[in-house]
Structures are given as structure tokens and as C-alpha cells.
Fold:
Amino acid sequence: MDSGNNHCCYSIRWVNGAIPFRYRKFGRFGPDKFLHFVGHAGLSTTLVKALEAKCSRRTAPVLAVGSSTIHGVITNSLQQWIPGRKPEYADVVAGFLGSVAGVWFWQYILARPHPRQTG
Structure:
């Protein structure tokens, strides 16, 4: 597993959790949903890449999306005990959609065999 991808992914997730993006003018769907989407896309891409070494190409995406979504549900639920924070269903949905997009991006764009270039 590439540690560079992990650092980037966890950096995005940390920034997303550390900066309060709740502005009244955005309502429920502020810029934090985009960060949830991107953070979970990076996490699931890293997970599917690592899991494909041990699992089939059909099992790895399911495990990656499931793990990323469970991570999102747990961290979202823990927010109820943090002053000034509250769990939001839209965060989980954005994380799930980002997870699916990350796995799709890995399987159909990045990991796809490319034809050799003749030189």
C-alpha cells in the first residue's frame, strides 16, 4: 500500500473534521459535503487498491465501500458527544457516494490496462 495515498487521504479527512464549515447561507449542503465526498473517495481508492492484493476484483470494491462507509457512520455518530458538533445524515450520504466514486475511479480509470505506446 502506498503511504503517500494514505497521508493525503487522512489529511483530507482530518481537515474536513477540524474546520467547521457550517455557514447559514449554505444550509444543510455546505462545502463540508464536498470534503466528505473527496475524503471518502481517497480512502476507498486506497482501500480497494490494497484489498485487491488479497481479495478478488469483485470482493475488494464491496469491502472498500463498506469499510469507508462504516468509518463515516461511526465518526458521524461520535459527533453527538463533541460540543458544537452534531451528526448529519447528509455527511454519511456524501461519504458513501464518495466511496462509490473512488472505487469506480480506481477500477475503471486508474487500474485499467492501457495499450502499449509504440515508439
